[in-house]
Amino acid sequence: MINVVLYEPEIPQNTGNIMRTCAATNAKLHLIKPLGFSLDEKVVKRSGANYIDACDYTVYENYDDFLSKNEGEFYYFTRYGKKPHTSFDYSDNSKNIYLIFGKESTGIPKEILKDHLDKCMRIPMTDKVRALNLSNCVAIMVYEVLRQQDYNDLLRFEPFKGEDYLEK
């Protein structure tokens, strides 16, 4: 299972977009407090385009609470990572894969990262920006894992107009 972990997210629009991505990909979302917003805020629901109810998510009191309730392969995203996000093998879909992202302003604390340097990564980019938007990073990573797993059981056609829509 693919798990997206947001460590102390601050921007409700990002979390709403990530909820939509998780709903679209059957990924589970883990939110570690404190959150910089309420999950009841309209902006979260608007950004999630009303898919918030389709998103499987759990909220944790802190990082230790999260660790005590989850086991699997943990990967940490940081602009200080030295390995590209594509350098890991995510192809075994029988494993619980946790993609851990930090808060928008400061990322994942160094105290957490220093014990997991072998699993710290970054999405390569130019020196013109510090980092990509959090929701973009989550989408890039979830789809990299899915690509390596041959997209599991996700639909490969648009379900509402039908598989042969373009041929008609």
Structure summary:
27% of the residues lie in helices and 18% in strands. It has five helices and seven strands, in the order βαβαβαβββαβα. The protein is globular and about 55 Å long.
Task: Give the biggest sheet.
Answer: 7 strands, parallel
Oligomer: single chain
Q: Element order, helices and strands?
A: EHEHEHEEEHEH
Distance between the termini: 36 Å
**Helical percent range?**
25-40%
User: Structural class, from helix and strand content?
Assistant: alpha/beta
Total number of strands: 7
Average pLDDT across residues?
92
Q: Which band does the percent of strand residues land in?
A: 15-25%
Q: What gross morphology would you assign?
A: globular
Helices, by number, come to: 5
Rg calc:
16 Å
In which order are the strands of the major sheet placed? 3-2-1-6-4-7-5
Low-confidence stretches: none
Describe the structure.
The protein has 168 residues and is α/β, with parallel strands linked by helices. The chain contains five helices and seven strands; from the N terminus they run βαβαβαβββαβα. Strands 3-2-1-6-4-7-5 form a seven-stranded parallel β-sheet. The longest helix has 15 residues, at 134-148. The chain is globular and about 55 Å long.
Labels describing this entry:
168 residues, single chain, 18% strand, alpha/beta, seven-stranded parallel sheet, 7 strands
Present the secondary structure layout.
Blueprint: E1 2-7, H1 12-25, E2 28-32, H2 42-47, E3 57-60, H3 63-69, E4 73-77, E5 83-84, E6 97-101, H4 110-113, E7 120-122, H5 134-148
Parallel strand pairs: 1-2, 1-6, 2-3, 4-6, 4-7, 5-7
